[in-house]
Amino acid sequence: MKGQSYIILALIFALLVAVFAVINVGDVQVNYLFGTGEAPLILVIIVSVLMGGLITASVGAVRYYQLKRENRGLHHKINNGSSPNKQTEEKKNEEAIKSSGSTSEDEEEK
């Protein structure tokens, strides 16, 4: 049901943008970084909406794949009982204990 409501809202938004664009058909001056030009307002509106949709979709896709990778790692951690990082953390702890042990022995000798 959630997917259907999303599609319905997207279609309503697209219809509103299309009506708004068709109402505004006059030429407008567009200032680019490298110059200016004239274009129909309908094209400016449609291109702006499409660029906004593309940027939003790409940011959403990046976040989706980050969460998917994190989820896969957590499933791997649950299935194996430990994470690959746990072994490295244990080694670091052992090294820290060894190094702190050697420094306390050196201080006792002084």
UniProtKB/TrEMBL annotation:
Basic and acidic residues compositional bias, start-end: 87-97
InterPro entries with a match to the protein in the record: LapA_dom
Organism this protein belongs to: Halobacillus seohaensis
Protein name listed in UniProt: Lipopolysaccharide assembly LapA domain-containing protein
Transmembrane segments: 41-65
Keywords of this entry: Cell membrane, Membrane, Transmembrane, Transmembrane helix
Region (Disordered) residue spans: 75-110
Domain Lipopolysaccharide assembly protein A: 24-79
Pfam families, A to Z: LapA_dom
UniProt keyword annotation of Cell membrane present: yes
